[in-house]
Write a structure and sequence with these properties.
Blueprint (H helix, E strand, L loop, with lengths): L5 H5 L7 H15 L8 H17 L2 H21 L8 H15 L2 E3 L5 E3 L6 E7 L1 H6 L1 E12 L15 E2 L8 E6 L2 E6 L8 E2 L12 E12 L8 E4 L15 E7 L6 E3 L2 E9 H6 L1 E5 L6 E5 L8 E4 L15 E8 L6 H15 L2 H4 L1 H14 L5
Parallel strand pairs: 3-11, 13-17
Antiparallel strand pairs: 1-2, 4-9, 5-8, 6-7, 10-11, 12-13, 14-15, 16-17
Length: 381
């Protein structure tokens, strides 16, 4: 039977402190202790499980192994003799720390120890634009709440006149060494989270965190041609790093609002243009809007509803370069409404004259109904 996750056994988050873990264990121990549940095998097993979880998670070294490797890591450490090493294996461990410490950006501290530095988190800000702002470019200011370095303590987290003390778990290195058989591994210290120091007299401004949440106003220049999903990177405008680490970046994600007239598909635009029955039958002109202003579109005689006209270079110039797109205008014949009696009579008379020669005046209608007849008669459509 596989073991349950220790954090789930105690019902605590993975970030729980030692005090929180012990409190959770005491609650479960009182509930499932054998003396309170005689002859109850299930309670006995739950009690043992909680005890094992507490013993592992309140031991800094064991907890570091468990967080990294799970139950298999604890079992391997037990077989190999876990604990800090002071023997010949330290030489291998020092080489391991030098190589991987430099790769992952650790910083030296006093006494030859190493403590990890942490890059600040990247942030995301969604910027909504109108279609014309996205097409032609736009400049604006945004306000971004983020964690910034505390100006009172300069990021140390300690109150004025005091300094942070070296972590007594890792000795100020930010890491602990764990023996697993022949190998010496280094893990981030679970108490100071790699910082190497513990703040005993915290700064009143940041409460020992070294960072405070502030809202910063930034200028953003949106290039012409952006579309929904595009991102603009503002380097170094993310959250402040820890232990002298660099700040993260801010990514401004573009979202273009729906337009009342145009639809966009990459570099192309499209729109529907309503025209009258008379314009469709006899031909004419119609004023069509574009992002550059109105243009006149010529409608040929006998134009059918749904016909698409292409206006070249009236679309969008892509942000990554390339030719400007086109505007596709789909004409829709609008049926007249609110007709007078005289107008209805005129339309009836026109319809009667058209019915006299369907082949000539309505070829699509004739072809459609002939196809319907073949379908219901079992013939090919």
């Amino acid at each position: 039977m596989s073991k349950r996750d220790y954090y789930k056994v105690l019902d605590v988050p993975r970030s729980a402190t030692e005090a929180e873990i012990k409190k959770a264990y005491r609650r479960l121990a009182m509930k499932h202790h054998p003396d309170r549940n005689p002859n109850d095998k299930d309670s006995e097993e739950l009690f043992k499980e909680a005890k094992e979880a507490c013993e592992t998670l309140t031991d800094a070294q064991k907890r570091a192994i468990y967080d990294q490797h799970g139950h298999a890591g604890i079992e391997a450490a037990s077989r190999g003799g876990g604990g800090r090493s002071g023997g010949p294996g330290d030489a291998f461990s020092d080489i391991f720390g030098d190589v991987f410490g430099d790769i992952f950006g650790t910083a030296r501290r006093g006494g030859g120890g190493r403590a990890q530095v942490f890059r600040g988190a990247d942030l995301r800000f969604e910027l909504e634009l109108e279609l014309d702002q996205a097409v032609f470019g736009y400049s604006t200011e945004i306000e971004v709440p983020k964690l910034s370095e505390c100006e009172t303590c300069n990021g140390s987290g300690a109150a004025k006149g005091s300094t942070a003390a070296a972590c007594d778990t890792c000795g100020g290195s930010g890491q602990i060494r764990i023996s697993q058989g022949f190998f010496q591994l280094q893990q981030t210290c679970p108490r100071c989270r790699g910082g190497g120091t513990i703040v005993k007299n915290p700064c009143d401004t940041c409460l020992g965190q070294g960072r405070v949440r502030r809202t910063r106003k930034l200028s953003v220049k949106v290039p012409a041609g952006v579309d929904t999903g595009d991102r603009i990177r503002l380097g170094g405008e993310g959250e402040a790093g820890r232990n002298g680490g660099p700040p993260g970046d801010l990514y401004v994600e573009i979202s273009v609002r729906e337009h009342s007239i145009f639809e966009r598909d990459g570099e192309h635009l499209s729109c529907e243009v309503p025209i009258s029955f008379a314009s469709a039958a006899l031909g004419g002109t119609v004023e069509v809007p574009t992002l550059d202003g109105g243009v006149t579109l010529k409608i040929p005689a006998e134009t059918q509803s749904g016909r698409v006209f292409r206006l070249r270079d009236k679309g969008v110039k892509p942000v990554r370069g390339g030719a400007r797109g086109d505007l596709f205008c789909r004409v829709v014949i609008e049926t007249p409404v609110n007709l007078s009696a005289e107008q209805r009579e005129l339309i009836r008379k026109l319809d009667e004259t058209l019915k006299g020669d369907t082949n000539r005046h309505a070829p699509r209608e004739k072809g459609f109904f002939e196809g319907v007849k073949r379908f219901f008669s079992g013939g090919a459509a």
